[in-house]
Structure formats: C-alpha cells, structure tokens
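Structure tokens please, single chain.
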Amino acid sequence: MCDVCDTTIFNLHWVCPRCGFGVCVDCYRMKRKNCQQGAAYKTFSWIRCVKSQIHEPENLMPTQIIPGKALYDVGDIVHSVRAKWGIKANCPCSNRQFKLFSKPASKEDIKQTSLAGEKPTLGTMLQQNPSVLEPVALGGGAASKPASSIKPACPASTSPLNWLADLTSGNVNKENKEKQPMMPILKNEIKCLPPLPPLSKSNTVLHTFNSTILTPVSNNSSGFLRNLLNSSTGKTENGLKNTPKILDDIFASLVQNKTSSDLSKRPQGLTIKPSILGFDTPHYWLCDNRLLCLQDPNNKSNWNVFRECWKQGQPVMVSGVHHNLNTELWKPESFRKEFGGQEVDLVNCRTNEIITGATVGDFWDGFEDVPNRLKNEKEPMVLKLKDWPPGEDFRDMMPSRFDDLMANIPLPEYTRRDGKLNLASRLPNYFVRPDLGPKMYNAYGLITPEDRKYGTTNLHLDVSDAANVMVYVGIPKGQCDQEEEVLKTIQDGDSDELTIKRFIEGKEKPGALWHIYAAKDTEKIREFLKKVSEEQGQENPADHDPIHDQSWYLDRSLRKRLQQEYGVQGWAIVQFLGDVVFIPAGAPHQVHNLYSCIKVAEDFVSPEHVKHCFWLTQEFRYLSQTHTNHEDKLQVKNVIYHAVKDAVAMLKASESSFVKP
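Here you go.
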C-alpha cells in the first residue's frame, strides 16, 4: 500500500532507495504540484527518511511491480482480441486504423522493484532512448505506407519516459483530463501484429452463458500471466469454450467506460418491462414500476432480468429467501446461547452514543422484550450491535451460518465468493482477499412517531456492491399499537401503494425501511447536505464528507426538499422477512428498522459497477486518517487487471471454436 494515502499500489510507484518509503502515482503527483507552487502540503503528510531528512519527490526512484513489459504485452493482446471479437471499446485508438501501444524500451529504463544499485536519473533514461516514435500498423494493407504519411494517434510527448519527465516538471497537470491517448511505441520496440480476420461460427456446440456462469470459479481458474503471454491462437483448455456473447458481455462491461451522462439521458422512472425482455422469470414491479422484485430466489434465469436493471444502476429486490434458510440458526436464542458472554460495544440509535462494557447477551435479552432492554434515564434504549461479529471473523465464528447463507443467497453468479460475475473471485490466491463479508447488522426497531427522524443506519455509500438479506424479524413485547405505528412510518417514508398493500393484506413481517439513491445523484445529495449544514451553522471541514461521515438521516422533510430543489428521487423500499436488497456500488442509502431485525450483507464486485468502485477508492483517499473508509480494502486496480487478464485468456482459448471464412 501507499505509505501516504493507504491506497493499494498497482504497478508504477515511487520508492525511496534509502528507507523503502513508497508512494503511489497520485500522491507523487500531488506532492510535486504543491512543491512547485510553494503550497503547504496539508492533505497528506509524508513521513521522514533516515536522520529525519525530508523525502523530496525528485529523489525517489520510479518503480514497477509487474515484471518487464508484461503489462504492455497484455495491453497489446487486449486490443488484438477486442478487434478480433468485435468488442466495443472507448479508448482513443478504437476508431483509428493504426493502433499505438506503449512499451518501455529496455529493462534499464525503469528498474524493477529493488532498492539495490545506483538510481538512474530521468535525464539518463531519456538520453539512452531516442524520442523518434513511429506508429504500428494493425491492418494488412496499411503496413506498406511510409511512416511519414501516417499521423500518430497521439503526440510523442505521451511516451512513458516523457510522461515520467512530465511528472518531474509538473507538466502532467496541464493535460486535458477528458482525453487520455494511448502511448506510442518507441522505435526500437516496434512489433507489427498480424492482420486480424473476422470470425464466423462453426458447427461446434458451445456452452450457454447460463450454464457457464452457474459453474463456480475454481482455485486454479485464474490464469497465470505467463500462460496468457505465451499462449497461441487455437490452444484450448477444458471448460474454456464459450460463446462470443459470454465474454463479450463480461469483457465489454469492464473495458467500456460509460459516463454518467449516459444515465442522465434516460428518462426518470425508466423500467425494463418483461414483454421487452422476453424472459419468463417470476417477478413484479414496486416503487411505481421503478424497482424490480424477483419472486423465486432459486430461479436459474434470474440474472437475465436482474442484469438489465443492474447495469442501469438500479437496486433490485429478491423475496422468499427465508424459506430456504435453516431458521433455527438465525433466531436470537441461538446467538444468545452461543455468544452471550462476549463483550461488545452497543450504539444508541437515537443519540449515536457508544455504550461500552456490555455483552452480546445484554443486547439479545431486549431484542424482543422492551422492558428487559438497557435503559438510559429510565427509558429503554433502541440499540444496535456495533461491528459484531467482525467481517473477517464471520466464517470462523459461525461456519454453519456461513454455509447456510452461501448455499441459499440468490444470484450466486454475482454474490458468491467464487461467482463467475464477481470480479473479486479473479484475484489469485497469493493476494490478501478483500474483506467482502458477510457482515451482520443487528438492531432494535424505531417504532414511535418521534423515532421517524432517526436512522438505524444513516445515509452513506459503499465502495462495492452488496446483497442485504433479512434473515429474522422480531416483534417485541411490551409496546402498544405497534402495527399502526409501523404502517404510519411506511406511509411517511414515501412507500408506494403496492408496498403498503403488501403490508396490510399479506401475512409477511416488515423489517426495515430503506431509501436508496442513484450513484449519479451523489454530488447533488452532497451539495444539498452541505447547504443544510450551513443553514444550521455547522462547519464542513475539507477532510470530512456529509455522506461518508454517516452523520445524516434524511427524514420526510429533507427528502421532500431534496426532490424539490435538486430533482433527486430515490427508491423507498420496505424489506420484509426473507427479502434481499441489492445495493449498487456508490449508491447512497439509509436504513430505518421498523421492528427488531437481523440482517446479513455480502459484498461483491460486479462488472457493471466496477467503475464506481474505482472512483470511490480515489475519493476515499482524501478522507481523514481516522475515517473507516480511508483504507483501501478492495484492491480495485488489482481486481480489474486480473479480471481483464482472465477474460482475454478465455477469449483466446475459445478461438478454436470458430473457423475463418
């Protein structure tokens, strides 16, 4: 990780040859910019070197982790495979006849990860390699054209070494951020790629997408880099034959960088109707036809409808999961019996005060018994368990519950740790696994009219996608008119008529009221909360954020203002027992428990929202060091790299399933 911002270092970074201090590209660039402008560098503080010497950016050594030219070779293969399979891309060279890729000229240009030996200066590296740059022809007919008649797709100043020089001089900040041209190859490293003929289907019977993604990812399925670089067209392995649609969808979801403007062009309330999709999957629509609810958690075709809504950034709900779970494992009595003596911190949902010195048993004793709850000034408190059990301990502490959840969680293609569409599964075994849960959320209900301004979980957003399962709903004894108050809370929460009808006419137990907003509306919500805080005389420090700090719950009046002043409308969702709420990465959301609830959430990284994971990781760098979201636990750059590498390997292995025309 970067020693400054705690973000995972992917490849290129800067290292002190004396003490091993290492910084990422972003921190190096920011430090250089501030030093040149004479500004005080307060965002991130750099630790000192030996003998308390200051780390100066120009004294650090550029270093890479991925060996040699492997990363650049993979880049060449990505472009080659993409062109052959007709996969759409948005990189600058996608519409040009001559594709240009960047490669370092030699091993001496940029040293590998090692602190031994003399440090080369950028001037020396530039002197050793001429700046004469030529493009590479990918097509057959264009290769005969003289180099002088070919216009490069990008200026020569974008070569790797010139880019490093720009970092030193600060010119990199003058680049147009909207255009990120590919870097051309140095003259002495040009390797023309053969023409790429189109492919046509043969008579070979291929596996369907459904059967493929339902097969878990094995530990050995993550392709080694050397196998990809040394592979040749036509070589296949068992289990790697796939239709173009499979990897087209997976790979295109990764390489396409769809901007938020694409989403903003869609009309509000856009829904995917079953008649359009042509999928025979049991489902209905809530939130005025804006929320998809799948009715059969075991249906093998759920992903067909799910992904159509998911790629638009919409939440999705799946109902009926509790019928498949072992209900005895999820009852409060079982938790009290197994873990009642453990010490734990509790949180007062009304005041956000942390209560220490309590036990797990103290919490469960009042879960369904109001008079038996811990009291504050003789009033029973509405409590929630704080970080119990810790995310990394769930599987070890509760193996039977973990197995029960993983065996029955819907859409396993996305949600399981080995799911084919969970990009986190592509990380090799030698990586530290990202902390993706499961994580439990245990809390009492906020039933009284005064409690409607409080949240069980305040407004926030997560760096990854999540599936939140309602495994138990407890209706406590000792409170009158509970059902009537819950109905009023649901109505006050802007729920639609079908949701209210589901509560009144059905025999289901409502557990929690959710408000989820689209990721594209995050900035509007942030601006609104800052405006409200200023109206209330509160400060907005630079290293704090009204959403990431989880300091706000949007009650009815704030939600109304948000819609009227900024045009932001979310999804009001009532989660009943057995419902699973899918929350897209980067989507602000808040939760208000109606009754006492036990919820379990499993995080995952989907191809549709990996771009949000990336940008949120960058955003979290600027939070304070004590912030819970500051540390990069997802390793999103590594996830993207290995997912693309494996997707390309599968595409290359499938080429033998087709014949040239």
